[in-house]
Structure formats: C-alpha cells, structure tokens
Amino acid sequence: MPSAAGRGQGKDRRPDNEEQPAADDYAKERYGVSSMIQSQEKPDRVLVRIKDLTEEKADEVVWVRGRVHTSRAKGKQCFLVLRQQQFNIQALVAVGQHASKQMVKFAANINKESIVDVEGVVRKAHQKIGGCTQQDVELHVQRIYVISLAEPRLPLQLDDAVRPEVEGEEDGRATVNQDTRLDNRVIDLRTSTSQAVFCLQSGICQLFRETLIRKGFVEIQTPKIISAASEGGANVFTVSYFKSSAYLAQSPQLYKQMCICADFEKVFCVGPVFRAEDSNTHRHLTEFVGLDIEMAFNYHYHEVVDEIADTLVQIFKGLQERFQAEIQMVNKQFPCEPFKFLEPTLRLEYREAVAMLREAGIEMGDEEDLSTPNEKLLGRLVKEKYDTDFYILDKYPLAVRPFYTMPDPVNPKNSNSYDMFMRGEEILSGAQRIHDPQLLTERAKHHGIDLEKIKAYIDSFRFGAPPHAGGGIGLERVTMLYLGLHNVRQTSMFPRDPKRLTP
Amino acid sequence: MPSAAGRGQGKDRRPDNEEQPAADDYAKERYGVSSMIQSQEKPDRVLVRIKDLTEEKADEVVWVRGRVHTSRAKGKQCFLVLRQQQFNIQALVAVGQHASKQMVKFAANINKESIVDVEGVVRKAHQKIGGCTQQDVELHVQRIYVISLAEPRLPLQLDDAVRPEVEGEEDGRATVNQDTRLDNRVIDLRTSTSQAVFCLQSGICQLFRETLIRKGFVEIQTPKIISAASEGGANVFTVSYFKSSAYLAQSPQLYKQMCICADFEKVFCVGPVFRAEDSNTHRHLTEFVGLDIEMAFNYHYHEVVDEIADTLVQIFKGLQERFQAEIQMVNKQFPCEPFKFLEPTLRLEYREAVAMLREAGIEMGDEEDLSTPNEKLLGRLVKEKYDTDFYILDKYPLAVRPFYTMPDPVNPKNSNSYDMFMRGEEILSGAQRIHDPQLLTERAKHHGIDLEKIKAYIDSFRFGAPPHAGGGIGLERVTMLYLGLHNVRQTSMFPRDPKRLTP
Question: CA-CA distance, A406 to A412, in Å (whole number)?
Fold first, then answer.
C-alpha cells in the first residue's frame, strides 16, 4: 500500500535530492514514494483501467496505476501523461485545495517510466487532448505516489521508438535503430507498436490452435534435444549431454511423423526450432517458433494442403476480425496495404511459376530452385495477376527437395511438395512424405545419406504407416508479413541470430 | 487408390510368399496389396470412421480404413479385428459369393498392424461382440486391400501393452516393460491407453490457454538458447553456438519477468524447459514442458496465487467434462480414485504443514525444506483432513527459496512463495519476485551469486517495474498425477532423461 511521503521507507527514497517536504506543506500526506509493495496488505481500493476512463466517468474520483509517459511543468501546474499499455490519459497536478507547490514540484520531478498510483477526479476536457488515447477526459490529481521509480536516464525514448522512419528522415527527428531497441528490449516492448505486434502474434498462435482443434487435430509435444541430427547434420547445434553429446532439433518433423505412424492421424505442435545457419538476413533466425502440422490422408496429399491453407485463411480472417486495433496501431508507424487473400487459396504449379518468371524476363531452368529475388518478383507477378498476397506453389522439382519427399507419380522429375507464400516470401514448406520404408531407403541412398544415421527414422515406417503430409510454418515470418514489416527481429520478442544471444 | 490383386506394384508385394492367385479364383479382383498411395488420384470414395459403424448403418455397404488388430482363421472364415485409434470392429471374411478360399487365406495372412482398406456390409451382430468397441455390429467383408504392410514380427503386442499390471502378475500373462515401450514408442503410442493419455494431455494445454486467454493473458514466446545460465550455472546444458557457447534455458522466468517489466501485465507460455540434472526418479526429466504464468498484481501476491489456482481448477473441471472417455480408458489399465479438488482451492501455510507432519511423528525444523517422503505423507494427511488432492502450500521459509523470492514483510524468515501439489507431489513452484533492483542486489549478494552474471536480469527492473508474481507448472506431472499414473515417462511422448535420448 502506498504510504504517504515522509513515512516508512518512503523517506529515504525520494526521486531526486530535493529537500524533505516542508513542515508547513498542507499536502504532505498526499504525495511521496511508497514503500515497496511486498504484499503487506489486501486493501479494497479499486484501480481503474485507463482505457475505461471516459466521459461516462466524469466527476468520479478514481485511483489509477500507470507509468509516467511524459511530464511537463508550467508555473503552478504539472501535466503528466499516464500510460497503461497502449492507452494514455492526461493528468493535471495544479496548486490548489489538494496540491501544494511542493506536491506539484514532486510530480514534475518524477522520472519518466516510473510507475505511480494516482487519485484524481475525472474531468471532461475543454477540447480534445491530442496525443492521448483518452481524448475527452483528463484526470485532476489529488494524490500521487511513486510505486516503482525508473532511473533518470532512459536508454531510448518511447516517442522516438514509435516514430515512422520516413517522417524521422524528413524531419531530422530521432528514430531508434534496431540494435538499440533489441539491447533495451524491456523498454522497446513498451511502445504501442510493440504491444500491438506481440498481442497480434499471441492471436496468431491462438487462431492456429483453435482452428486445428476444431478440425480434430491433437496437440503434441516433441523433444528438442535429439540424439542424431535429423537431416544429415548440417546447420545443427550441438549440446553437451552428461558425458555424451546431442543435438537441438531442426524441426519436429520426425516426431510428427512418428505420431502419424502411431495413429494420432492429425497432429500439430507449436515450439522452438533451431537452425545453426550463419545467415544474417532480414528473415533468418537461429531460433524461431514453428507452427507445425502433420496429417494422414486418404488418397491425395491435396487433402492436407487444403487443410493447411484453410488454417492460414482462418488465421487471416480471425486477425482481421479480432485484432483490427492492433493492425491499425502498427500501421501508424509502418504503413502497409491490407493483407489480401482468396478463398479458396490460389494454388499454382511450379512450372506455371517458372513460366510467369520467364515471361517477365528471368532465365531459369525447369528444375532450378527459386532464388530470393525471384521469389519476391513472383509474389509481385501473382499479386498483379490474381490480386492475392497468399498463395501455394505446388509440385516442386524433386531435385530441390529433401530425400523424404514423395516423388510425383506422373512426372518423376516432380514431387508432391509445396511451399506457401505471404507477400512474396516463403512462410511454409511441406510435402507428402514417403511412408514406404523401401522407397525411403532408395531415396536416402540416392541423396548419399548415411543409412545408419537415419535407421530409427526409416524403422518408424516398418509397422504399417498411413500416407501422410504436412508442413511447418514460421511464426515470426507470418507476423512480419501479415503486418508488412521488414525484419523478423521486429516480430521475435528476444531474437537469436548468429550475432545476437542477448537479452 | 487400391488396385486389385495382380495389378501394378501389388503383384510384387504379397504379404508372404504364398502362390499367386489361381487363374480360377473368382474373387481375384477383390483383394491384394495396393500400390503405394502416391496421390495418383482423387476418388470420391468415402471412408467411414469405425466409431460411426453402429446399428443405424446396418445393411449399408461401407469402405473402412483401419489396422489389422488381430486375425483368426477358422475353417472357411477369417475373423479380423480392425482398429482405428481407440475404436475397433470385428470383420468377417467368409467363403461365399464375394470371397474365395484364396481371399480368406490372403486376409488371414495379413500381418498384424498392417493398414487395410475394406469394403463390407454392416450387419447387426447376433450377440454382443466382446473386446470390440463396436459391440452391436460386424463388417461382412467384400473387398480387402493392404495399404501399408507391417513387418511380421512386432517388437511388442498391443494387447500385452494395455494389460493391467496386477492382472498380468496374477495370471502370469505378459505385460510390457517400460524400456521396451519407449524403445518402440511408435507402437506403444497406438494403444488405447496411450491414445487416451496424450489426447487428455493435449486437452490440458488447451484448457490452460483457453482459461488464461479468457482472463486477459497474452501468450509469449521466450528463447531457449540463452547467453548466461540464469540461476547460477548448476544443472544447465551447454550448447555450442557458432564460435562461442551458450546454454539451454532452465525456465522462461527471466523472460516472463521482462515481459512484465515491458507492460504486458499478464503473460503465459508453453514450451520446453531443460534441466541437466542427473536425477533418475519417477518424476524427473531432463526436458519437460513448462506451463508458465507471470502476472503483475496490485497489492498482494495472493491475487496471482488465486488466478493460478483457479486456472488449475478450470483445467480439472474441463478434463472431467470433456475427457471422461479418456479418463475411463486409462483407468481400465491403471485403476485410480477420481481426482478431488475444492473450490476455492485449499491454501495452507508452511508452518501449518510442519505442524501436521510433527503431529504425525515427523521431526523437522521450521526452516527445513520438505523431503519427497514428507511431501507425500503431507499429501495423505491433507487428503484425510480436507478431502482434496489439490492444495497450495504458502509462505515457504526464505532460506529454501531462490534469491529473487520476495521476503515476507512480517516475518523475515518467511517468503512470499508457494508450491502447489497434486496427489501429494509438487506440480508448481512460484513466488512474488523481487521487483526492486536494490533489494534484488542485496539478496543475490546474500546468496553469494556473482552479480556480474545476473546484471542483465537486475537491470531489467531499473526502469520502473510493477510488483509481480508467477509460477511454472510441469505438464507431464499434471497429466501423470491427474490420471494417478506412477511415472512421468508415461506422460511424455518421447521422454528424455540422463539415460534416454531416443527415439
């Protein structure tokens, strides 16, 4: 519980070295630094949420806990902006019946980002208060206590951190570079943009699982520490495991497939995926979150492709419906066209994509993989032609896919595999997997893979395995591309790349 | 698409080396081994689920895909039990209009666990069919094709794997030991018990998140590769990270707390947690799934304790309501009293627990931690006195808790910390965390922790931090104890312990 200034620990914890409240300060009980909240009491005081402070509450006395977003002293008055997540309100401390000169000075000296408890009367504003989410009311402060004091020098300013970059360049006003943001993530994550990005990301996970559970999928948990590098050993992190060593899983694929062989039929998992790739690009992380799906099908892997595509469509729709405020908040700083998609999802064959690219002047072979620039160009061509930011590319050349990919039954140079794209960037890779141990062995040999190392994998299919397909979605990429952001580090709370392991 | 016997690849893939179908076999098109399903076609044949085969479908002709659970030839007939997840039905292949002698022989020779497509007429059974979930109907087979052939020798028998252990000892009938199960997990997971355990576990995750999202929590994703061992460096796995090294997170706690400092207010995460402990017990794993919660509170950490306890209660209730069939399925093999809990949850103080134990004849000091046997004894005492399998133990001695635990404001030997127990075993540990950098520094020094190593942690609280508390729940333990199982390896799909890294 906040204690009044001059009581308890508060005495020693003034925000700066100003003098103690004068004995003749008639407001001295009405402000100060509270003793640390250590669960001393269970008062029945209600703290009202800032977002609920509207004209309906006019003339009510309320208690609010918020951060000091800005403060500005002006003669006998001090204007504070109090912030709570993405909401904020103007609070006025003015010399008068409730506040003394000393109290105004105290309020004006509270470091930005400190957390305060404020008692005040909600008053209708004479004119709209620009820059605050609560534009129609302000709070006339009667008591103010510091709950947690911030250090005086912030490593970055929140206002700078939400400034659109173009404006910053035009105006010469400060913006915050990415490393400063990431080095001081606790503060950077407080911005309205970051709050919106990560609430929306939480929503993507929720919609992904909601949709799949509705479709009859079961959630599985797969191990991240594995005994053998699943895909040949490249790009894998090594872990010391007691007296031996182990690896970090590059994907849950083997385990998803084992669950299919174990009759779970439709499974999904959400979890970290590790790639020891020394790629320093806008879209690679060494640790990211995989949204993974695997499903037994009856006759054709398109049964699975349709389920995955529909799951993504349900996510896009759910975001539109439930996260409109967050999308608009991010757009303020990073303007972007709304994300477009078709129902049913557009599915092109790889050869059609190659034809489109050739028509646009690109030279490439039939069995050549898509380069990143070609991927993006293709995204633009597809957008022009079909007006969609989301599509499936089906029937990749067998040569560019992993050994466990099912060959196409008609054209042996093709495979039953697919990628999915958002705004011209790959967000999912998937395939029908070979469920026959004999064919799997042949294909592994053809790829020069040491059969001894994948014995456990192949053995999983020896006791009856249904035909199945699946895919893995990169969560951070989906968030980035849905919102039209440009770096996956903006959509990973604590990103990991070859050069960053902290915070 | 299944092709008839004698066509395509089927020719070369007979389940055993029997002769080719005789030319005079009038049923030769009606059975065989299908060519591998490679997505050749999109037929409109509907495969009916075994669980939907009831008297209502009597006399209908249906197609079913299932595993051969058992087969038994008897003169001119062959009885198969076809299984699909936890459901099964008897299928009869009998010499007659549709089936020849050769076809019956073919069916009788299909290896157990093979996947078959069967066309048959649903017929009312003359008497209840024991041992099948579909007791009132059987399937009179008209066509049967092998979709995926299992090897003839199974490493374990599913019937043995679901046999209650007591019965096995009494009868001298086989059961399957744990290592055999885990070594052949793909088959062990097919049992009705395993299917039920892991469907219920999927439900726990779902109920956990559903409840928290309803309470306004945000899901976060925290990194598992970290640069510094968070709690001093013991029991941590080391990862080689490019030219340097890193660690695997022992808990998401630091990151949860950073999210609280970043104003997310209420967060949760579900993800792997790594402990390099050489503990070979029934309840320790080196990798398990943590259900983690962290929450800012207003005045008292009991606000958080109440939310966590209610979340667990919502999980228990949801399981009762939605997973009754699974609970009963597991109980068949592992009989157990139903899980009991109170609303609101019983909360005892540590000193009360010590008094109860002393009354039961245990000698222990006021500031001594609970040993595992004492924990279990206490569980029995609490059950006797309060009739609950779930309770909270609050106010642990400060001496037995980590440095970041908030001391009790009244009695400095105590702390604002708590554990939660199910059937006498700990499933959650939590506390109010110290949110004041100065006190945190003092407590770290008192514990002899190198301040340099936890600098980033302490610095997180320097820019205003709300009071907060949280806790971490072990998913596998909750599943185990809710179902009254006796080993956490039964509730981890692919368990990891000091001696097991495969499959």
Answer: 10
| pLDDT, position A4 | 42
> Average of pLDDT values for B226-232?
73
Our CA-based measurement puts residue A71 at a distance from the nearest CA of chain B, in whole angstroms, of: 16
pLDDT class for A170, splitting at 50, 70, 90?
A: low
Question: Would you place residue B461 in the very low, low, confident or very high pLDDT band (cuts 50, 70, 90)?
Answer: very high
CB-CB neighbors (< 8 A) of B299 in chain A? 1, 37, 39, 41-43, 45
Q: Edge-to-edge strand order for the sheet containing B417-422?
A: B218-219, B266-274, B287-296, B468-474, B425-433, B417-422, B390-394, B346-349
Taking CA–CA distances from A154, the nearest residue in chain B reads B463
Q: What are the structural domains of chain B?
A: 29-146 (2.40.50.140), 156-189 (no CATH), 191-488 (3.30.930.10)
Chain A touched by B216 (CB under 8 Å): no
Share of chain B above pLDDT 70, in %: 94
Who's near A180: CB < 8 A, 6+ residues apart? Answer: A155, A156
At residue B22 the predicted structure's pLDDT band, cuts being 50, 70 and 90, is low
- What whole-number percentage of chain A has pLDDT above 90? 89
Of A45-59, A223-237, B407-421, B441-455, the least confident: A223-237
Is a pLDDT exceeding 80 seen at residue B8? no
Q: Which of B222, B300, B494 comes nearest A222 by C-beta? A: B494
Interface contact A39-B225, CB threshold 8 A: no
pLDDT average, residue stretch B317-339: 97
For residue B459, give how far its alpha carbon lies from the nearest alpha carbon of chain A (Å): 10
Verify whether the Cβ–Cβ distance B464 to A113 is below 8 Å. Answer: yes
> Which chain B residues are Cβ-neighbours of A213 within 8 angstroms?
206
Catalytic positions of B: 275, 277, 283-284, 426, 429, 477
The pTM for the full model equals 0.95
B22 touches chain A (CB under 8 A): no
Cα–Cα distance, B106 to B116 (Å, whole number): 12
Q: pLDDT, tens digit, for every residue of A440-481? A: 999 999 999 889 888 888 999 999 999 999 999 999 999 999
Alpha carbons B201 and B196: distance in angstroms, whole number? 8
Q: What are phi and psi of B375, to 5 degrees?
A: -60, -45
Instruction: Compute the distance between CA of residue A47 and CA of residue A61 in angstroms, rounded to an integer.
Output: 11
Which positions in chain A touch B503 (Cβ < 8 Å)? 258, 456, 460
In B, residues 372-391, which contact A (CB 8 Å cutoff)? none
How far away is chain B from the Cα of A126, in angstroms, using its nearest Cα? 30
Q: What is the pLDDT of residue A169?
A: 56
3-state secondary structure of A474: strand
Contacts A261 to B, Cβ<8 Å: 186
Closest-CA residue to A420 (of A323, A259, A297, A310): A310
Q: Express each pLDDT in A379-394 by its tens digit.
A: 999 999 999 999 999 9
- Pick from A189, A82, A89: which is nearest to A145 by CA? A82
Chain A residue numbers with beta carbons less than 8 Å from the beta carbon of B187 are: 262, 463
Instruction: Compare all CA atoms of chain A with the CA of B290 and give the residue at the minimum distance.
Output: A221
- Taking the Cβ of residue B57 and every Cβ of chain A, the question of whether any pair is shorter than 8 Å is answered with no
Count CB-CB contacts under 10 A for residue B138.
Answer: 24
Of B43, B113, B202, the CB nearest to A219: B202
3 state SS for A114-176: CEEEEEEEEEECCCCCCCCCCCCEEEEEEEEEEEECECCCCCCCHHHHCCCHHHHHHHCCCCC
| ipTM of the complex in this document | 0.94
Closest CA to A267 of B191, B474, B199, B477: B199
Does the pLDDT at position B431 exceed 70? yes
Decide if A263 contacts B190 (C-beta within 8 A): yes
Please name every residue paired with A63 in a beta bridge, in sequence order, or none if there are none.
A47, A119
